[in-house]
Write a structure and sequence with these properties.
The chain is α/β, with parallel strands linked by helices. The chain contains 30 helices and 14 strands. The two termini are 53 Å apart.
Length: 670
């Protein structure tokens, strides 16, 4: 028998006395000279070891080598309310819900830890969209029941003998009339003897088992009713056992009134952090850098709330740290995973009722829907009655009867996890950034990119769409040239217009590093434009007697300022400067960094008075944002400040640079 320290949980220790007394009757056909308890231990040990070997490792799409499931697992949270099956109140105008409102509503759902819910209820259905972690949760629960160390660290209280199967696998045997009980008995019998069925029967009859039936949604449609009936009959026939079933929310039909339904919640910030650090346990500096990227880019953070997409991101980042430049590729990979790879990687293909509806055509549907509702608002949640006309129009183009629009929508929802229900009578994209990505594709397909840019470049709600549009465009030079024009600061003398230009400059930078397909010469022109903008900005601030001074503290670029007098609109102008600085801090390309260093070396810091503070302000605002990629730029300025410590500018410069140097030292960069 396995050792006590983290091994299998011995079944004998938790059998009650009446069960122990009846063991011999179960094994009447066995040699009387062998102790029944020893046989029980042998069956239990064999079963637990085989289950542990089967479930211990996990290999996700794109992963070169499998990893231990427990090393990547973060306690799953569930909600007992399933929003996609509830109706919104009539008074709530869901059409006007903004991006932050939807995100906050998701995050503020009342949740509890999954193992607490499973311990409380004997019959449970765990729902969730594609890649939400349903299989990982069921596998981890099964492992927990057969591993003493995991069990003691969980919220499970009553020890049980776990059984696990994917229902797609079970159905391949069920065609021959094999019941759930017979299936598990036959699997154990392969590795023991013919009396294994008595062992399994006794465990089920006395309510000693926890049965995990994974992926109900993968059961072929022609076998769905029969499988549901089998699960119902098992749950009713062996009511004392714990039965946990998983299914995609959109593809679930209720099993029986005795089952308690819940839905997996999105990953929390803490869970995302834990999983990232688990991925990069041997390279903690990569974990820190990835989290820095996520903190500054909502468009990348959004998919990370799903375990599958977070894993894809970690796989990509592990081999290529240029995440910002690979953002478009990341989204393409995510869409590919949902449409094709996630099922195909497990040797599974969902039945489609429409041969004309290829994956490419489904993507065209997503583009149509995304563009229609984003341009009209933007709207992230759309009532089904407003969505169906767009599906009908697509059906008409693809030789599908428009009367089938509702069924087409249902199939897309059930199969791919890209469009999902927000409520029983409304839909949304599963990740809001997916809508922005597909909207950008629709804009390019209809050749509206320049019109959209002119109309919406000042609207922050459109920033991600414009960024995706530039990244997807085969030749975005005209778009980027127009953004350079809109962000030009030469001649600007007032703070409100300066703030607008700074925001546009950030949009230009973000669009550039998203993988824009342009020549290096034009890229250098944009870099020069961004650097020149700091000089023009300094001129404007200096006219008001204000000199912004950048420092790095707690992983964030902050701007203090030296001033003779100030204006109420000053903070409004400094805020977008801080946003741009932090974008550069975590994403600065090497060629941009080289350009900045070249310009820094040309700044004259030997002057006096206002000119000296102007030069110090520009130097700090350029050097601190590249301090992660080039800490030497800060060290050089420190040497200059040390040489001028006898005057006011030198002392001010040194004091601020010391703060940045401390942060760089703390993070191991200097």
């Amino acid at each position: 028998m396995a050792k006590e320290d983290g091994g299998s949980i011995p079944i004998i220790g938790w059998l009650d006395e009446p069960v122990k007394q009846s063991i011999r009757s179960v094994f009447d056909g066995v040699n009387r000279g062998v102790e029944a308890r020893d046989l029980l231990r042998r069956y239990q040990k064999n079963h637990s070891e085989r289950l542990n070997a089967d479930l211990k490792y996990i290999k996700i799409l794109g992963m070169e080598q499998p990893v231990e499931l427990v090393n990547l697992y973060s306690p799953a949270m569930i909600s007992s309310s399933v929003p996609g099956r509830l109706y919104e109140q009539d008074w709530l105008d869901i059409s006007n819900l903004g991006k932050k409102q939807i995100s906050n509503k998701r995050r503020n759902r009342q949740t509890t830890q999954a193992d607490i819910f499973v311990e409380k209820h004997d019959h449970v259905v765990i729902l969730g969209p594609a890649g939400s972690g349903k299989t990982t949760l069921l596998r981890h629960l099964a492992l927990t029941y057969c591993n003493k160390q995991l069990f003691q660290g969980s919220n499970l209280k009553i020890q049980r003998l776990p059984f696990y199967v994917t229902l797609y696998t079970y159905c391949q045997h069920a065609e021959n009339g094999v019941s759930i009980k017979d299936y598990f008995a036959s699997q154990l019998q392969k590795y023991t003897d013919k009396y294994a069925s008595d062992f399994v029967e006794r465990a089920f009859r006395n309510g000693l088992a926890a049965i995990f039936l994974d992926s109900l949604d993968e059961v072929p449609l022609q076998q769905r009713d029969k499988t549901l009936r089998e699960i119902r009959e098992f749950a009713i026939g062996y009511p004392k056992n714990k039965v946990v079933v998983s299914s995609r929310t959109a593809d679930y039909n209720p099993i029986h009134e005795c089952f308690n339904e819940c839905e997996l919640a999105r990953l929390s910030e803490q869970a995302i952090s834990k999983i990232i650090h688990a991925w990069f346990s041997s390279e903690p500096e990569k974990a820190v850098k990835l989290q820095e990227h996520l903190a500054n880019d909502d468009g990348v953070y959004s998919p990370c709330e799903t375990p599958l997409l977070l894993s894809l991101l970690c796989i990509q980042f592990k081999h290529d740290l240029l995440l910002p430049k690979r953002k478009i590729q990341l989204y393409r990979r995510c869409i590919e995973a949902f449409l094709r790879d996630w099922d195909a990687g497990r040797g599974f293909r969902r039945d489609s009722a429409y041969s004309q509806l290829s994956d490419d055509r489904k993507e065209r549907i997503f583009e149509t829907v995304a563009g229609a509702f984003f341009k009209d608002g933007p709207r992230y949640v759309f009532p089904e009655e407003h969505l169906l006309p767009h599906i009908e129009a697509c059906c008409d183009r693809y030789e599908i009867s428009t009367s089938e629009a509702k069924n087409v929508l249902k199939e897309i929802e059930a199969h791919h996890g890209i469009l999902e229900r927000y409520s029983a009578d409304s839909f949304m994209f599963s990740h809001l950034s997916f809508q922005e990505f597909f909207c950008a594709r629709q804009i390019l397909a209809s050749r509206e990119e320049m019109l959209i840019l002119k109309e919406h470049y000042k609207d922050e709600r459109w920033a991600s769409v414009i960024e995706f549009t530039v990244g997807l465009h085969p030749d975005p030079k005209d778009l980027l040239s127009r953004l350079m024009q809109f962000s030009g600061m030469e001649g600007i003398r007032n703070f409100p217009p300066l703030a607008v230009r700074m925001k546009t400059l950030t949009l230009l930078y973000h669009s550039l590093i998203a993988g824009a397909a342009i020549t290096q010469d034009f890229r250098n022109q944009i870099y020069d434009h961004i650097i020149d903008s700091h000089f023009y900005m300094a001129e404007t601030f200096m006219l008001a007697g204000v000199f912004p001074m950048a420092t790095l503290s707690a992983g964030t670029v902050r701007h203090t300022y030296v001033y003779n007098h100030t204006r109420p609109s000053l903070p409004q102008a400094l805020q977008p400067l801080g946003i741009l600085a932090n974008e550069i801090l975590n994403t600065a390309p090497d060629d941009y960094t080289s350009k900045v260093i070249e310009r820094l070396n040309a700044i004259d810091l030997s002057g006096d008075g206002q000119e000296a503070f102007k030069a110090a302000s520009i130097s700090l605002c350029l050097a601190v944002p590249i301090s992660y990629s080039s800490p030497q730029a800060v060290a050089r300025l420190l040497n200059i400040a040390e040489q001028r410590k006898s005057d006011h500018m030198g002392r001010t410069l040194k004091r601020l640079l010391e703060v940045t140097r401390s942060e760089l030292t703390r993070t191991g960069r200097l």
